[in-house]
Amino acid sequence: MSLLPAVLAHGQFGHLPPTQEKDQNFLTEERLRLAVEASGLAVWEFDLATGKPVWSRELKLLMEWPEVLPVMDEVFWNIVHPEDRDIVVAAYDAMLGGDAQGYHLEYRYVLPLSGRTLWVAEWARLVRDSDGLPIRVVGAVKDVSKRIEAEERLRLAAEHDALTGLYNRAAFKERLRQACDAGHEYSLVLVDLDDFKQVNDTLGHDAGDQLLLAVAKRFRAACPDSTMARLGGDEFALLLEAGGDPDEVAGHLMNSLDSSLEIKSNRFAVHCSIGTASSSVAGKSPESLLRAADLALYAAKGAGRSRAAAFAPEMLARVERRSAVIATFREAVALEQVEPHYQPKVDLRSGDVVGFEALARWVHPDRGTLTPQAFGDAFSDATSMLALGRAVCRRAATDMRSWLDAGLRFGRVAINISPQGFAVPGIAEIFVAHFAEQGVGPELLEVEITENVLVEGHACQAAEVLRRFKEAGVQIALDDFGTGYASLIHLKRFPIDAIKIDRSFIADMERDRSDSAIVAGVIAMAHSVGLSVIAEGVETDRQAAILREAGCDHAQGFLFGAPMPTVAIPGFRSNRPLDRASSRGHEPRLPSGNR
Ligand code: C2E
Ligand code: MG
Ligand code: MG
Q1: 392 lines ligand 1 (CB under 6 A)
Q2: Per residue in 474-517, pLDDT tens?
Q3: How far is CA 420 from the centre of its chain?
Q4: From the CA of 500, which ligand is nearest?
Q5: Is 558 in the pocket of ligand 1 (CB under 6 A)?
Q6: What integer best gives the mean pLDDT of the chain?
Q7: How far away, in angstroms, is 525 Cα from ligand 2 center?
Q8: How far is the CA of 143 from the centre of ligand 3 (A)?
Q9: Pocket lining: 561 vs ligand 1, CB cutoff 6 Å
Q10: pLDDT digits over 301-332, tens only?
Q11: Helix or strand or coil: residue 59?
Q12: How does residue 587 score in pLDDT terms, banded at 50, 70 and 90?
């Protein structure tokens, strides 16, 4: 039985004049069939009196239903996806109950023969007789799986990180917002991989991506039920609801990285730092929770990384103190209260002063002269560091000018350049030009950088900047050597003139033989690649003697002179002839050769 005559006879498409009814019926039926075929619709009807459904050929094809098998009402209900049955029943009942003329729904079929799931759009209408009584339902169905799948793909792409398939930042924030709106307690776990940048820089971004993917898989396996995101870079986040314990989750995540990962046939021991925060402590809003977890993460890193820390309100207080220090320090720089003091560097054999290091001091109107310890917080603030760099250079240039004018010989003056300063485009040229303005030549200048400058930026960019300093005639020293990567690669790869052995090694040399052995080893190694060596923080004659014995070239420390203001430089004489036996019977002198 065809569905279409029933539709025509009973309703939706209107009654025809009796005389032409037969011909017109035929013509309209043909037109409708054409329209139905062209639209890709599959139609059905359901006789309310008999309870018998009729499916068009197209619908049977769509359902993969064999032509010969009879169709019963139960068949249809079995085909509707179990999760969607309620909405279809509700729409159907509303229509039969007179609340609606018909319905339009999108839902799923599970095809009985192949088990395939199909998304369909369905339009249904109730047909009434001339007395207005419902006699049948007619419907049309269209396979919309392709469209829904495409929409789903778009939604996934919009919500997920392309590399790991985890939620992206925006989608994660939305989940946080929903958790917050639900009003329950919830927690956040923020994860940052330690030293990920190094992998990226040494093995390339491709290997970095593979590493992130491998880590995401480990995390996923460790916490399969949590809402997990990659917020960007090497930062991951987990949202825990319904009483999930963030400390326990942090433990699982760390354990999941216990065994090393293999990337491009290299094995990597990967570690992470974790910050956690719960809405009960940090406040319910997503912003406050994110900030709190971020602070906890910062604390975990500050405490030495590869560990987890939970947010505590004191962390917020500390941040507020930090902001206050930064604000007052910026102001102090603007008020020209920050100036360099100069600490001598001496030749360990002759005792002659070979130069000075410019060290920032805050000459505070009430608190006296403050060392960087008092404004350490400003070191992580880019704006403060750039302002400090400019202030120190400006004062150093005028101080050096005045020393030159006074006929003083002072060797090279070393300026510490922060990682933020080093990243300023054209820094080498700006630096040299700045001193040139005061007639101070590059042969009187040295820059001190730490190894993280070489690691944090792109290595090739760092090499290029250093090359420009060198080409301009400025010497380069690697500061605090031994506290960071202490990498031989850095010594080989970058055009460095000297390394400064960190004070911590020197301090322990007298007590700890292994420290003296390390220092001797570093000196030999540096000499073998043509670098000179300066020891920092030399405080005792014994330390100076051990260093001299090991062949160390230069030294700097309270033994020879503390950092002093510019006015003290002309009168400065080192109070410590170094090797009394070998000293040539005079006090260490300021170097010759600066004009
Ligand atoms: P640094 O560049 O390694 O400077 C050496 C530090 O050791 C200085 O600390 C100096 O006063 C201290 N020192 C020197 N001899 C001795 C000694 O015999 N015993 C002990 N215990 N300490 C000694 P200071 O001046 O407090 O500076 C600390 C750090 O702050 C510097 O370490 C440097 O990294 C940074 N810094 C200082 N001034 C500047 C600056 O103008 N710009 C930048 N970017 N960083 C600066
Ligand atoms: Mg230094
Ligand atoms: Mg140092």
Answers
A1: yes
A2: 999 999 998 887 788 888 889 999 999 999 999 999 988 898 99
A3: 18
A4: 3
A5: yes
A6: 88
A7: 21
A8: 71
A9: no
A10: 989 999 999 999 999 998 899 999 999 999 99
A11: helix
A12: very low
